[in-house]
């Protein structure tokens, strides 16, 4: 079957509009470590996928899942110990105040729990988010996606804080933080003026979907204080930032902000649908009591086995250190390339999550979505998988499995440099 | 660790209020077919769990998951064929108009998609559900749980249709259907009066959470027509009723109603978080286009492998026939016991889903929740697992894995008769 026939078959079954990557999508057959192989045996260096954090088809995780699924796979209204061991180990990795946990299957579900929990605890309805975020696809969580600044009763978006295309030019980082904090203050006072009780703020600590901007220093910590002073709670969404992605266990450690509620997802089970919402025990207990929350598939022994194997792999392979070292190398090399490439407006990021801001030229810094998409397609043709993100879809997103090492970085850098040469950049 | 110590540890990590079964919960270690084993090696006949539909730790499903997870486990923005084969096979089992599908991870997610889809297609917001239903735990879907008759703008609940405690006494089935249909009509006209555009109705075709009542014949089909005549769509939630549970592939076949949108979940992956929303292609396409729905973990090759293995097992083991035969035997025997047991008000159900309505006495038919809970605990002590459900929690719910055979039924019947003798019923 040709790619075209496959797409036609897919449209017929899934409905047209189911998202696909690349001008000519790839038909995959096999994955291993940082590599994906298509049905013709062609291999691709995966620099996009953040779910298989300890590598595609990681043997330890697969064996843990298979062994447990062959032994016991059951919901949590019976007792079993493995999920308690896992909960304990995971909570130990968090700040001290984060001492209770509810497991779920997807990031959407975890963020639903978090928002419902904040509403119950505060008695409020109003949430602040950024204007270019994504936290999931349920009706409530999905209402955060590209939310308007005002216009909804319960959601007020603020312009996402950034240094590259700041809301005002010519300001220092500290001054910029002030300007963005004014937006938070104004959203809070608008809620008050509208008679909507404030529930809190929900933020990805590295603003991944916003395009991974450099955030004005002090913004996060000061925003959290402002929210708490107004009676709200701070929800930190670690679905993308968590599990050593940034070279820290959690994005909130990098961002210098303490969450009241923290959500986790994607990499947690290396591909098994596993997510969680952790929080202070008083918040969890109130939520449990009032909602009687139960999730059929979650908190199972299989959830525990997969989650535990992922933590074991991260620890035993010393991935946090590798992420920092390889990430710094990659960032440094990309910054070098950027110096003589006028279309690279900015290179930024942390650990194994980097963004290359593709622009018409450095002087105008005008976003060039078409150019960024062209780079992705060209890199794919050279056997390297990346994608585009950010509010203008012009940020080339580099986010490989964490087992990505320096030799892989060099393969990518060669392909990237060739691509720059091919387009005369 | 004692059970008490384990519960204390669980409360400390999960927060008090995380639901547990039984006065003395059981600590499980292993599952096999219809059997669960605790850490002391004690075995329990599982007559409750509807997820491991082809048996706990089914070897074929476990091997399919393990093999695929070791080969490729990736999201659906790349092409792979297994998920298309699975989609095709699953859609072939449905009515002809149900020809497109969106996979998700949980029933909650599938029902979120269904409700959002109905809203987009109709331009409406208003949904009808029953007053004792459960369709999931997100903010929108969770608002259907024990929804009030009126009082919310967007959700109107109707008294769930039933023959055992009908809304009016002394009526024939057809007359009762009329009375309940008046409730549907009144909900629809209330939406109109309130200026809320009507989106549709969402129903479990066997009203499982309502207590599996005998539904007045013709109600379902006529309610569906009434909803469509008013511009609404019919969402049928097969999360509990589907996959041969009733001796039919789908509950809507038993109920004699055609869905516009149908959701599936629990048994789909025999324990892997796998769910779906299937519908007419025009509805799916509109939804895909307007929502850009994407689910990180769903539509993966591992989803396909698990789902396909479940269908293979149901087919190869001829489970649909077994469900009907063993179910009829079990129902007949329970009805015999009921004749000389004054506390059994009603015995009903279909296939491998039966309910025993526990009451103070037949004459009053007063619900006896405490008695039903006591029976569950006593059966557990005899090595048989059931639970309670229904609006009064007085319906003993019998819902074993479908691989349950006549010899298992006899083990249960012996334990049940002993329990009746023990309590002098």
Report what the structure shows.
The structure is a homodimer of 425-residue chains. By secondary structure, chain A is an alpha/beta fold. Chain A has two domains: 3-54 and 318-422, Aspartate Aminotransferase, domain 1; 61-316, Aspartate Aminotransferase, domain 2 (3-Layer(aba) Sandwich). Chain A is built from 13 helices and 15 strands. The first copy, chain A, has a seven-stranded mixed beta sheet, with helices on both faces. The longest helix of chain A is centred in the middle third of the chain and has 22 residues, at 173-194. The radius of gyration of chain A is 22 Å and the shape is globular. The interface between A and B is large, with 88 and 89 residues.
Record the SSE blueprint.
The structure is a homodimer of 425-residue chains.
Chain A: H1 3-14, E1 28-32, E2 35-38, E3 43-46, H2 59-69, H3 82-92, E4 100-104, H4 107-122, E5 126-130, H5 139-142, E6 155-158, H6 173-194, E7 198-203, H7 219-229, E8 233-237, H8 251-255, E9 261-264, E10 275-279, H9 281-291, H10 301-316, H11 319-339, E11 344-350, E12 353-358, H12 369-381, E13 384-385, E14 387-389, E15 395-398, H13 406-422
Parallel strand pairs in A: 3-13, 5-6, 5-7, 7-8, 8-9
Antiparallel strand pairs in A: 1-2, 2-3, 4-10, 9-10, 11-12, 12-15, 14-15
Helix pairs in contact in A: 2-10, 3-10, 4-9, 6-7, 11-13
Task: Provide a concise account of the structure shown.
The structure is a homodimer of 425-residue chains. Chain A is α/β, with parallel strands linked by helices and 425 residues long.
Biggest sheet strand order of chain A reads: 4-10-9-8-7-5-6
End-to-end Cα distance of chain A? 37 Å
Beta-strand content estimate of chain A: 15-25%
Q: What fold name goes in the CATH topology slot of the largest domain in chain A?
A: Aspartate Aminotransferase, domain 2
Helical content of chain A, roughly? 40-55%
- What is the fourth-level CATH superfamily of the largest domain in chain A? Type I PLP-dependent aspartate aminotransferase-like (Major domain)
Question: What is the overall silhouette of chain A?
Answer: globular
